[in-house]
Amino acid sequence: MTVRPLVILPDAQLRLVSEPVTAVTDEIRTLAADMIETMYDAPGVGLAAVQIGVLKRVVTIDASKDENAKNPTVYLNPEIVWSSEEKRVYDEGCLSIPDFYGEVERPDRVRVRYMNLDGATVEQEADGLLATCLQHEIDHLNGVLFIDHLSKLKRDRVMKKFVKAAKRDAA
Fold it and tell me: Where does the record place the catalytic residues (predicted)?
C-alpha cells in the first residue's frame, strides 16, 4: 500500500468526470488499498480516486465514530438511487481543498447502489455523516466540488486563494 499525492485545487483534474470501473482487477484492488492508506494518512474520512489523479469511479470512506477502529468501505461506481426530502447542513471540508470548510446543505438520508471489491452489487442506506460523505465523494466523481454548493462569492474567494497559492508554489 502506498500513500499517493493528493490533487489540490485549482488543478483542473478535479473537474473531470471519472470513468466507470468495468471489472474488479488487481489494479482496482491496489488502487483501493492505496486510497485507504492515503485517506488515513491525510487524515480524512473519504477519498475519490480523482483526488489522487486516477479517473475511475472509486470511492473510499470510513465515517466510523471510533478513530481507533478502522472500518473503511470501498465503493465502485457508486450512484445515489434515492435521497430524502429532509435536508441537513454539515460543515464540509475536502482533502483537495486543504484548511477550508463551508456549510453545505444536502439530503439527510440517501440510498446508494455500488459494486464492492467482490464484484457484487450492493444497496446501502445511509444518514448523517456517512450520507454527507457519500454525496460529497460521488460529486467528486462527477467533477463537482463541495465549494460548488456555496455562494458564488465564497466560491470565488476560495478559488482566488488557491490560484494564488498555486502560482506562489510554482515560482
Answer: 137
